[in-house]
Design a protein that fits this description.
The complex is a heterodimer of chains A (about 1050) and B (about 550).
Chain A lengths: L16 H9 L3 H4 L7 E3 L11 E8 L5 E5 L17 E9 L4 E6 L21 E2 L4 E6 L5 E6 L6 E6 L20 E3 L7 E7 L12 E3 L6 E3 L27 E9 L4 E6 H6 L12 E4 L40 E6 L4 E6 L5 E5 L7 E6 L13 E6 L9 E6 L9 E5 L32 E9 L48 E8 L3 E9 L39 E2 L2 E2 L14 E2 L22 E3 L5 E2 L5 H5 L2 E4 L9 E4 L2 E4 L20 E2 L12 E6 L2 E11 L8 E4 L14 H10 L6 H10 L2 E4 L9 H4 L1 H4 L18 H9 L12 E7 L3 E6 L9 H14 L4 E6 L4 E5 L8 E3 L6 E3 L11 E2 L3 E2 L25 E2 L17 E2 L3 E6 L10 E5 L8 E3 L10 E7 L4 E6 L5 E5 L7 E4 L1
Parallel strand pairs in A: 1-56, 47-48
Antiparallel strand pairs in A: 2-3, 2-4, 4-5, 5-6, 7-8, 8-9, 9-10, 11-14, 12-13, 14-15, 15-16, 17-18, 18-19, 19-20, 21-22, 22-23, 24-25, 25-26, 26-29, 26-52, 27-28, 30-31, 30-51, 32-50, 33-34, 35-50, 36-43, 36-51, 37-38, 37-42, 38-41, 39-40, 39-42, 40-41, 43-46, 44-45, 49-50, 53-54, 54-55, 55-56
Helix pairs in contact in A: 5-6
Chain B lengths: L3 H16 L8 H4 L22 E6 L5 E6 L9 E7 H6 L16 E3 L18 E3 L14 H6 L15 E7 L7 E4 L6 E7 L4 E7 L26 E2 L17 E6 L5 E6 L4 E7 L8 E7 L6 E6 L4 H7 L12 E6 L2 E10 L10 E9 L8 E7 L1 H9 L5 H8 L4 E6 L4 E8 L10 E9 L8 E6 L5 E9 L4 E6 L4 E7 L4 E7 L4 E6 L4 E6 L10 E5 L11
Antiparallel strand pairs in B: 1-2, 2-3, 3-6, 4-5, 7-8, 8-9, 9-10, 11-12, 12-13, 13-14, 15-16, 16-17, 17-18, 19-20, 20-21, 21-22, 23-24, 24-25, 25-26, 27-28, 28-29, 29-30
Helix pairs in contact in B: 6-7
Classes of the chains: A mainly beta (about 1050), B mainly beta (about 550).
């Protein structure tokens, strides 16, 4: 239900009016008036316990001053009736109290100290309506006459009707009220979600001048509506009367739709019939219609966007093993959502299906084709759902359903989006375009910082008047500078100082609010009406995306220069000038702030400082033009487009390739400091303040422990056995075959050069374990004492006369003392997900025999008999590691051979984590007597990334450009210094900030923990109500304010 | 590495610190009064017939023996104790539920199904219990508790004297501060063995038990006890100078949580202040030898508390059985959680066969983050392998392909999270494309419950048709509630109003009851788990007179 706000006169009004009015009456204006950022206000009242579910109801004050008269929700809030006068209308909430088995009533139209209604004033403290243990779902009739709550108390499962005439504070003159006050009926199983629908009235004579006819029961005759007025048993009661026939609005007959999860059934009850039951009785409910939820077999596949269509079937995800699929599933309805066309969606926590029912006539619920929650990344997964919501139609005529993944796969707790627009035939989760730019997030899942507890769509607008003074909703911001300023669409443009107009905190359009189990709310973009105004000023008319993620821009927008054109009007930007065209993306997390490096703002995507280099000893060294600096490798940015200007923000300042003052020098001969360039195709890759390092022969996988097993045959290799803990391919380990693939990609000549390249560049295991203590009993055992004897078996001569631990110590030494020889390094000859086949890295098959290899590995295995620490390093290349994002790679497990192979899935092709350094051939220009700009290649070892010239840096298309490192955020080249690079030389840098998802906490100082349970939108007042299983009471979130302020009531 | 003297010093420190209220249940301080804790007694022998700050419960496989670990938490005595009760006899004393008189088959019985408004001389009616037709006494002589009394000692009736000779079969004294109690049946024969970590002397205690009836000696518990009924030194592991792991490591101080493999051959104990877990191996073939300290795994998160054994897939059991081929490379696993650390540590157990040097050991494997909750303090874990087991049972035992497929079925895991009070809901998942689960744990859902959960166990209730339905039982120490959670409905089935300080729960599935130990008032309650009963989800009997801390001896 979209949020629209109307002034008392009924004329369109600016947003927030209604919210402020109501909150003023709650006495909360003061707390919200300071709303520049999150501001949690807490009331001092402590009445409510932890809360379960809520429903809203509009009640009118009767002649006695009590709110007992149900009114249409549209009649609340009341802007006209004097306070306290009969006829005054207040919005109320009914709130279940799961622990006490009660339902509380909260008056949202009064001061906060009086908001929680004491049901029984004669008792000390607050008491609420008793309904039995474990009250679950609760619903209220649109006309406010009654509410219904499902109770799951074991052995006493049922539905209780709460006539609005009796839910308030008991008048002194009335008899005591308890659980027997309520009409109720017994169910055969615990009820799940509830829903109130209308059995539609029938215009059987097609005469608009005659009233429609209604029927009392699903199987009874249609009669004039007047015949049902006042005839119900409950209508005649002296106390707690309820006559739903008098409800307004009413298009038919109220039906209560009850799900029974354990029976996989949906029951339809007549709401009035339930209210007519004698209070205090608990006879069986009488369904007028039932529907059994079946499970349709999966008959559809996910539709992939063009950029994820695999080049061959083998490049598609194959899924993990989730055990045998059950032949049949039992449906278990867990949540329901109804769209405004009467289509009912039912989440199922046991079966991989979202049921879809035509509920336009509750007496004849019919099944529509189901939705199928699938997983792109894990096609074998059985994906169930636990909560869902369906949006209103967006301004583009689209409708979406979001559901929480309840599977046992890695995507559990994330959101799926379904396109359920009118006419849509899609029945599987949307697989988003541009997912290769965001491979950390499953293409068909919305991943938020924590697991999702509930989801709620919000559609709202803040309409501006057009030149006729008419407020029109759903107008998108128009940044085109050629658009007439008479157009209302231009009013939504951001101000030059970003203080108004399009901004991250202004939720204008359709959004999803997700309650996270961690006690936060997160915002997901669905349709941001201002989204097109949040982008760079510069335009890109090409169809090829630039580094800002822009393409195919409006041809009528003039080309941009650094100071003119683009999205500028008279020198003033018409857009936010954020760094990316993808700051706002449908079905992705919304940004908390502007993603910009604009002056006066925090720099979202720059570096804190220029990258620094440390040696393997940990000492920092300069990379300037001094002799020592020239000895060191250089890391420099590399242009995206040859010859084009490039800019890097470092600290608060921009450095540009054409700026003489703050110059960004990319030529290794001239550069006196390290650098890189950033790319902004996908801002979500910028983890705030993430640390990065580029390490020569750096660690590919974190330290672990494994057993080193000796080869069993002479032809065999040593085995690194981690047992079930192994996940080598998943970590991106590259063995010799994969290294050879890399070499081919770098045009290394086949034959001996390629074989040498593969051997040198293959990852290797570095044994980091210490030897067992000298007094360990192992060394005195026969096996331990003879370690090394096999080394001399063939020549019979042990020159050192050492065996056992002394020999191990002499060869492998202490773990923390580097040895001049690489005895602890084991080349990975072949890698599978489960184990590695290794040989000593110094072993040369052209020189050494296989028997020697076996002996060496036997010796190592003997010296390290138990699980021993090790890590995996890359061979002769630089490893790029992000402190959060890790080392990018596209290695996967071949499902047949279980070997580590290149993953050809389009999703991971942009992941990168390694770089080969560039070196100079003999042809490199050099000044007389001086070395070339970068270090010389070694013809015996360097078969790739050898260039003849590095003047100006390496531009696209130039020789060596294949060795430029390009990740999802960074582009750079590493040039060899005059001295060879050494293991653990390390460049380090840090992002200045990044992209933060728009989340905010539901906790406050006094309510310092939160486990949100459910969300309920109150569009009348622009508030979202959050119930909580840990914190007492309710949290109100002003969704129509620009800062989403929260207010607690408990 | 700790030297012997150092170990002893640390042991003393542990005892002293315990006396200073360094408690696993921190809220005990509040419950026991703000005046602080009590000085240790000068050496009074514990009354072995008294339930005293119970911390652990266990049932024999036939449900006929109930074992209770008493911690002597306030050090009023010089020892704790282990008791064994005749659970079969106890069940006979439970009120029998009825719907009408026909359900009450005893002589001169009727069903107390009168409307509640029709109070009898006992002030209560409509209990739907079988009562004496003449007296109508629903409590059968135990006395009806006043409503006020029921607030702190829930249950309609007064407590049953646990010293009844027909109930209390045997008891022995052990060191103080037992933190838990687990039972493992002997796979080679009858009976089984109890294991208890005790904090005061930093040991693991083991006690042999016969199969249901006494083993000819008239004793139900065998721990080398003499006439003083004190377990001998041989049944303590970790405090002897010669009780070292093969590599010389000694047992660290502060043993707390305990987990054991299903066959009882591997026992893992957490050391809550040391960031370590210890491994004991238990060779059933060496009768009477007891467990042996095998290995100490160090450098875990600082405060490990809960340990849970991961059920092993049937195909892995086949692979690892005596003479098995051991081609799968599966090592049994344990999950370890730590206080204030939002991670679950997977630890793998290498037995003598898997160990390269023949010495069993533990190896740290994956660490999985608990991202569902903002804060995590997991005190207990319940692991449900029923779906996988059902799949395996349906396989022909020789059908390895079938068993292999079943091995991929996720285990469901429920973690009792202390703050905020919640059940974290997760499952095993795999990041590998292998055939066996590698026991990675992911948590993606949460059910808020009352504050202070201390354990989580799986069990069943009987539904309206008398069919067992799985449930998770979580006692919340701080809130005096036992939560019964329905994992299928993702809903709370019942909140059992328990007495003060519920610590351990053990479920007797065969008889649809659960036992809950009440730490603060030192008694054991019995909960009705048959949903057809009016008393479902309530305490229907208290075993042992509830006694406030430092109350009168009974």
């Amino acid at each position: 239900m979209p949020i629209r706000n109307c002034s008392p006169a009924g004329a369109p009004a600016p947003l927030y009016t209604a919210a402020r009015w109501n909150l003023a009456r709650l006495g909360l204006v003061a707390s919200l008036a300071t709303a520049c950022g999150q501001d949690n206000a807490t009331a001092a009242l402590r009445a409510l316990g932890v809360t379960g579910e809520t429903s809203a109801i509009c009640l009118e004050r009767d002649a006695d001053g009590a709110f007992t008269i149900g009114r249409d929700r549209a009649d609340c809030p009341d802007y006209q009736t004097p306070r306290g006068a009969p006829g005054e209308r207040h919005l109320h909430l009914l709130v279940t109290q799961p622990i006490s088995g009660e339902v509380a009533l909260v008056d949202l139209g009064t001061s906060i100290g009086e908001a929680v209604i004491d049901f029984e004033p004669s008792q000390p403290g607050y008491s609420f309506m008793p309904v039995g243990a474990d009250p679950g779902a609760i619903v209220s009739t649109p006309g406010g006459m009654a509410s219904f709550v499902g109770v799951a108390e074991t052995g006493r499962e049922g539905i209780f009707g709460l006539p609005s005439t009796c839910i308030g504070s008991r008048p002194e003159s009335s008899p005591l009220r308890d659980i027997r006050t309520w009409p109720a009926c017994r169910l055969p199983a615990a009820p799940g979600p509830l829903l109130l629908l209308d059995d539609p009235a029938l215009d059987d004579d097609q005469d608009p001048s005659t009233p429609d006819r209604v029927r009392a029961r699903c199987d009874s005759e249609y009669v004039d509506r007047a015949e049902l007025l006042g005839t119900a048993l409950a209508a005649e009661r002296e106390v707690c009367a309820a006559d739903l026939a008098r409800e307004r609005p009413l298009s038919g007959r109220r039906k209560l739709v009850v799900t029974l999860p354990s029976l996989a059934e949906v029951w339809v009850l007549d709401a009035q019939e339930l209210l007519d039951r004698t209070p205090g009785t608990f006879e069986a409910c009488a369904p007028e219609a039932t529907a059994v939820l079946g499970v349709e077999p999966l008959d559809v596949a996910q539709r992939l966007p063009a950029d994820l269509v695999p080049s061959s079937p083998s490049c598609a995800p194959v899924g993990f093993n989730h055990g045998p699929a059950a032949e049949s599933y039992r449906a278990w309805p867990e949540d329901v959502a109804l769209d405004d066309e009467g289509v009912l969606y039912v989440a199922d926590s046991q079966a991989p299906v979202i049921h879809v029912l035509d509920a336009s006539n509750p007496c004849a619920l019919s099944t529509l084709p189901s939705l199928h929650p699938l997983s792109y990344s894990d096609p074998n997964a059985v994906v169930t759902t636990r909560r869902l919501d369906v949006s209103a139609l967006t301004s583009a005529g689209k409708r979406f359903l979001y559901a929480i993944d309840n599977s046992t796969s890695r995507t559990a707790g994330t959101l799926m989006a379904f396109d359920v627009s009118p006419g849509s035939t899609e029945r599987t989760p949307i697989v988003r375009e541009r997912s290769p730019f965001n491979p950390q997030e499953a293409p068909d899942r919305i991943t938020l910082p924590r697991d999702v507890a509930d989801i709620q769509f919000v559609t709202q607008d803040s309409p501006q008047p057009n030149n006729l003074g008419i407020y029109v909703e759903g107008i998108s911001c128009d940044p085109n500078p050629s658009t007439s300023l008479d157009s209302v669409a231009t009013l939504y443009r951001p101000r030059a100082d970003l203080s108004a107009g399009a901004n991250p905190g202004l939720l204008r359009g359709t959004y999803a609010l997700a309650a996270l189990h961690s006690g936060q709310l997160a915002v997901v973009d669905v349709e941001d009406l201002d989204g097109v105004c949040r982008r760079p000023v510069e335009v890109n008319h090409d169809a090829v995306e630039d580094e800002f993620g822009c393409r195919n821009d409006d041809p009528s927008v003039p080309p941009s220069t650094p100071t003119t054109g683009g999205y500028r009007l008279l020198g003033t930007q018409t857009v936010t000038n954020e760094l990316s065209c993808n700051v706002v993306a449908a079905h992705r997390a919304r940004s908390r702030g502007f993603f910009t490096n604009e002056a006066g703002t925090a720099k979202s995507a720059g570096l804190r400082a220029f990258p620094t280099l440390t040696l393997d000893s940990g000492r920092s060294v300069a990379t300037d033009l001094s002799d020592e600096g020239r000895d060191q490798p250089k890391m420099l940015g590399a242009r995206y487009v040859a010859g084009e200007r490039a800019v890097l923000y470092v600290g608060p300042l921009p450095y540009a390739t054409d700026d003489q003052g703050s110059r960004l020098e990319l030529d290794p001969k001239l550069a006196d400091r390290s650098s890189l360039l950033l790319s902004y195709e996908e801002p979500r890759n910028f983890v705030p303040a993430e640390d990065f390092s580029a390490t020569y022969e750096g660690v590919v996988r974190a330290p672990s422990r494994a057993i080193f097993r000796a080869p069993t045959t002479e032809e065999g290799y040593g085995i690194v056995d981690e047992g079930l803990n192994a996940s080598f391919c998943n970590s991106g380990v590259q063995d010799m075959d994969l290294s050879a693939d890399v070499g081919r990609g770098l045009a290394v000549p086949a034959g001996a050069p390629l074989a040498t390249f593969a051997r040198q560049s293959a990852d290797y295991v570095q044994v980091t374990a210490s030897l067992l203590d000298e007094d360990d009993p192992y060394w005195s055992s026969a096996e331990g004492a003879s370690c090394g004897s096999e080394l001399y078996a063939s020549n019979g001569d042990n020159p050192t006369a050492l065996l056992g631990r002394p020999l191990c110590d002499s060869v492998f030494g202490p773990a923390n003392v580097p040895l001049p020889f690489a005895s602890r390094d084991l080349r990975i000859v072949a890698a599978t997900e489960d184990q590695l086949l290794v040989e000593p890295r110094e072993f040369d098959p052209n020189v050494n025999s296989a028997q020697r290899r076996q002996q060496l590995m036997q010796f190592l295995s003997c010296c390290f008999p138990g699980p021993s620490e090790f890590q995996i390093r890359a061979g002769r290349q630089w490893v790029m590691r992000g402190s959060v994002t890790g080392v990018g790679h596209h290695v996967t497990t071949d499902p047949t051979s279980r070997r580590c192979v290149n993953d050809c899935s389009p999703l991971v092709q942009k992941l990168a984590g390694r770089a080969f350094e560039l070196s100079c051939s003999e042809n490199c220009p050099r000044d007389e007597g001086a070395p070339p700009a970068i270090g010389l290649a070694n013809p015996e070892q360097d078969f790739a990334c050898v260039v003849d010239d590095t003047t100006g840096g390496i531009d696209p298309g130039e020789p060596g450009s294949e060795c430029v490192f390009q990740s999802l955020t960074s582009r750079l080249a590493i040039y060899r210094g005059q001295q060879p690079s050494r293991r653990d030389m390390r460049f380090r840098w840090q992002f200045s900030d990044g992209f933060s998802p728009f989340t905010f906490s539901l906790t406050s100082t006094e309510r310092n923990r939160s486990s949100p349970r459910s969300l309920l939108l109150l569009p009348e007042v622009g508030q979202l109500v959050v119930t909580d299983g840990s914190a007492p009471g309710l949290t109100f979130v002003a969704v129509s304010s620009s800062s989403l302020t929260t207010t607690a009531l408990y | 590495m700790l030297r012997e003297g150092q170990t002893k010093r640390l042991v003393r420190t542990a005892r002293q610190s315990a006396a200073k209220c360094v408690l696993p249940w921190s809220c005990c301080l509040g419950l026991l009064g703000l005046a602080g804790c009590f000085k240790p007694d000068d050496g009074r022998e514990p009354p072995l017939d008294r339930i005293y700050f119970p911390t652990g419960l266990a049932l024999s496989p036939d449900s006929d023996r109930l074992y209770v670990a008493n911690s002597d938490w306030d050090l009023q005595f010089n020892a704790g104790s282990v008791q064994v009760y005749d659970a079969a006899a106890l069940r006979e004393l439970l009120p029998r539920s009825c719907k009408d008189d026909a359900d009450c088959s005893g002589p001169n019985e009727r069903c107390d199904n009168a409307p509640a408004a029709e109070a009898t001389e006992f002030g209560i009616s409509g209990t739907y219990w079988c009562v004496d037709a003449e007296t109508g006494d629903p409590c059968r002589g135990l006395g009806v508790q006043s409503p006020g009394k029921r607030l702190t000692e829930p249950g309609l009736c007064g407590a049953l004297d646990n010293r009844n000779s027909g109930l209390l079969l045997d008891s022995v004294s052990i060191a103080s501060f037992a933190t838990d109690l687990i039972y493992r049946p002997n796979p080679l024969g009858e009976g089984g063995r109890l294991f208890l970590p005790t904090r005061s002397d930093a040991t693991l205690i083991w006690i042999d038990v016969p199969n249901g009836t006494s083993n000819g000696t008239g004793r139900e518990l065998e721990c080398g006890q003499g006439s003083g009924r004190k377990c001998d030194a041989n049944h303590r592991r970790g405090d002897g100078s010669n009780e070292r792991a093969p590599n010389g490591d000694a047992l660290p101080v502060e043993p707390y949580g305990i987990g054991a493999s299903a066959d009882g051959t591997a026992i893992v104990v957490s050391h809550q202040t040391e960031g370590q877990v210890s491994l004991f191996t238990n060779d059933w073939e060496r009768e009477g030898s007891g467990p042996e300290l095998a290995f100490i795994l160090r450098e875990l998160a600082p405060r490990p508390v809960s340990v849970a054994a991961i059920p092993m897939p049937a195909i892995a059991q086949l692979d690892r059985q005596a003479g098995g081929s051991r081609v799968l490379g599966y090592q049994p696993g344990f999950w370890v959680t730590s206080r204030g650390t939002p991670f679950v540590q997977l630890v793998r157990y290498f037995d003598a066969v898997d160990s390269p040097d023949g010495y069993p050991f533990l190896s740290g494997a994956f660490v999985d983050r608990l991202s569902t909750s903002a804060t995590s303090d997991v005190r207990g874990m319940a692991v449900d392998d029923s779906r996988r087991s059902a799949c395996e049972t349906a396989c022909d035992p020789a059908d390895l392909a079938c068993l292999e497929a079943c091995a991929g079925i996720a285990l469901e895991v429920y973690l009792a999270n202390r703050t905020p009070g919640s059940i974290l809901i997760g499952n095993t998942t795999s990041v590998r494309r292998g055939q066996l689960s590698n026991d990675r744990l992911q948590v993606s859902n949460l059910m808020p419950i009352e504050d202070g959960p201390s354990r989580a166990v799986m069990g069943h209730v009987l539904d309206e048709q008398g069919v067992p339905q799985r449930r998770v039982f979580v006692p919340s120490f701080d809130s005096s509630v036992v939560t019964i959670y329905d994992p299928d409905a993702h809903a709370i089935s019942a909140r059992v109003h328990a007495g003060r300080g519920p610590t351990a729960v053990v479920v007797d599935d065969a008889h649809a009851i659960a036992y809950v130990s009440h730490f603060t008032d030192s008694y054991v309650g019995v909960i009705d788990l048959d949903t057809r009963h009016a008393a479902f989800g309530t305490l229907i009997l208290a075993l042992g007179k509830p006694t406030e801390p430092r109350g009168d001896d009974n």
